[in-house]
Amino acid sequence: MELNLNHLKYFISAAKAGGLGASAKAHNVSQSAISQAIRKLEESLGCDLLIHSRNSFKLTKEGEYLVENSESIFKQIDFLKDQIQSLNSEVAGRVTLATSSTVAQFLLPSLLKDLKTRYPKIQLHVTIGDVAFIVGEVKSGRAELGIVIDDGHFAGLERKLLREGSFACITSAEIKASFKKPEFLVTRESPGVEELRQVYKKRFHSEPAIGVEVESWEAIVSMAQMGLGVGFIPEFILDYHSKVKVIPQLEELGKKIRYKMYVVHKGAHQLSRQADAFLEVLPEK
DNA sequence: AGGATGCTCAAAGGACCAGA
DNA sequence: TCTGGTCCTTTGAGCATCCT
C-alpha cells in the first residue's frame, strides 16, 4: 500500500495531541477514522508506529522518528502550494536585503525604481552593515539577499558578480593636488588598502601615510572634500559627487586596485519569487 | 458493474478514578 | 476492595465516492 499523506497528517496530529480523540476533533473525523488511518500508515511503512494497547497512547521509536522527521514534508508541500498558486498571480511580498550604506545610498535608488516599475507589489526591507554583518544576516535567514563589496569567499552562500571596477583617488575640487606625499583616508577592511600600500611603496619607495582610517567611503568622500587628505573610493561613487576631483598623478595607482560587488544568498532553490524578481532587475555585470 | 478507499456508527473492552 | 462512570482504542458492518 502506498503511503497516504492524509494518514500521515492524522498520525502527526495524534502524536502531537497525545491521542486519537484530539486528532479526530482537529480534523473533524471520527476517532475510528484516525485509528484506521494510522493502521494503514503502519501497513504502508511496514512497522508499528504506536504501542497498541487499550487506553494508552504511546509512540514506538519508529513513530517518534516519523514525527520528528516528517514535519519538513508538510512545510515543503505548503511551500510548493504557495509557489504554484503564485505562478498565476502577480509577484508580491517582502524582500529582505542586507547591504552596505554605500550600496544603499548609491545603487539602490535606481534599482528600486526599476523594481517598482516591474513589480509594484514588492516591498523591499533593507538593513545596513559591514561585510560580516551582511553575511551573518543572510546566513541566519534574517535577510534573503545580501549585496557586498568584497572579494572574499562567502562559505555556504551562493554569490553572483554584480559589477567590478577600479578605485579612484580623490581630493576636494577646490584644492590643487600639488602635494607629493599626501595623507591617505582609508577604510579598514575594504578591498584596496593592502594593494595601496604595495603599489604606493613600489612607486614612491615609502609607506603611504595613513591620515584617517574610517569605515565608510561616504566619510572618505566628505573628508576629502574638506581637504583632510586624499582617499581611494570605488569609481562608481564618483558619478554621484561633483565636488570631488580625481588626482591625475594617482590615477594609475587607483586603477590597479580592484573592487568586486556580489549579491549573495543561501541558494537559488531557497529564494522566494519576490527575491527572484529582485535578482532579475539587478544590472548584469 | 465492481473493486478500492475512506468514512461513520455501534459495540466491545481495557484503564483509571471516585465513592461506597 | 468492589462497583459504576468515564475515557479511550479497536473492530466490524455498512455506506458513499471515485476510478477502471
From TrEMBL:
InterPro entries: LysR_HTH_N, LysR_subst-bd, WH-like_DNA-bd_sf, WH_DNA-bd_sf. Transmembrane segments: none annotated. It comes from the Bacteria. Keywords: DNA-binding, Transcription, Transcription regulation. GO terms for molecular function: DNA-binding transcription factor activity; transcription cis-regulatory region binding. Residues 3-60 form the HTH lysR-type domain. CDD domains: PBP2_LTTR_substrate. Pfam families: HTH_1, LysR_substrate. Belongs to the LysR transcriptional regulatory family. This is HTH lysR-type domain-containing protein. It comes from Bdellovibrio bacteriovorus. The lineage of its organism: Bacteria, Pseudomonadati, Bdellovibrionota, Bdellovibrionia, Bdellovibrionales.
